[in-house]
Amino acid sequence: MKEKTYQGYLWQKVLFLLILLTILIITIVFGINAGSMKLGFWPVVKGILGKGPDALKTVIWEIRLPRVAGAVLAGIGLGLAGNVQQVLLKNPLASPFTLGISQAAAFGAAFAIIVLGAGSYQAGADAKINYVNRYLVSLTAFSFALLTSLLVLWLGKMKKLAPEAIALAGVAIGSLWASGTTLLQYFADELKLAAVVFWSFGDLGRLGLEEVRLLVIGISLAFIYFYLNRWNYNTLITGEEGARSLGVDPDKIRFWGMLVSSGIAAVITSFCGIIGFIGLLAPHMVRRVIGHDQRFLLPGAALLGGVLLLLADTFARTVISPVILPVGAVTSFLGAPLFLYLLLRGK
């Protein structure tokens, strides 16, 4: 009888993940189809499979798929990072955005573009940021994100701050980095200023196949690391004493988990700019359905993160077409009221 109950428990969660995966696939096809040139559902499927006219394959593989793939990958990464940080800090408000990690990565990227000369802005109809050295931008963003993560860990451990106080400290740290970015912009020349401002909006249009490949590698490795530690995260939820009694070192798990999650947030921010609320919303929404078990919450938060960011980007591309809104503004505009609704409904 007990075995049947447990099997039912497992199947409910697996079924939910399969539903999320199906929604993600449908959303990908919908996102590729959306645009000035309507392709239709089955032509999109054929184009993805490499069939159909050359023009169709060109539109799908060279124009729309990199952006859609980038949205899905960035959403997956932010969903993973937010979930892991909420578990490690025992704080439901933790996410790369609320802890100031995204703002720190943004400052690092701005520092690389303005001070180190790693990027410039190309004006005109094909306006975009040209990276002289994208690895330098990512490395600098990662360094500042890591510094902020260590600061948050230190405040929580040494000063024994409550979860709410850690979230407030994250807001203050994020404000500090945002002020630093503003100061850098004040002293930048016009082209570099345009590059940073354009980049800080949060935009997926600058992603190419090379950035997508880097995101695939980084997020895949991070997911493998997180999933290998799923049982450690489950024991941390029960408390530090319980985790230590089971042979888990909370400090070590927390340090490496924050390091990897900060790395994901830094790479995504350095490629896409600041995108808020995905890392906060996705774990909350999934947790309400399938609970805290990290075996299912990790892939669930990742899948829903991909769905949410892709829907937001598709909305940004089509709502007042041909003008494309910055996706970072859309996620903040839609994410804030949705998060408030979830909080109020939870009470």
Automatic annotation (TrEMBL):
Molecular function via GO: transmembrane transporter activity
Family matches, as CDD domains: TM_ABC_iron-siderophores_like
Location (main, coarse): membrane
GO terms classed as biological process: siderophore-iron import into cell
Gene Ontology CC entries for this record: plasma membrane
Key words of the record: Cell membrane, Membrane, Transmembrane, Transmembrane helix, Transport
Localisation per UniProt entry: Cell membrane
Residue ranges of the TM segments: 14-34, 68-89, 101-123, 135-154, 166-187, 214-233, 253-282, 294-312, 324-344
Bilayer topology term: Multi-pass membrane protein
Family in the record: Belongs to the binding-protein-dependent transport system permease family. FecCD subfamily.
Protein name: Iron ABC transporter permease
Organism: Carboxydothermus pertinax
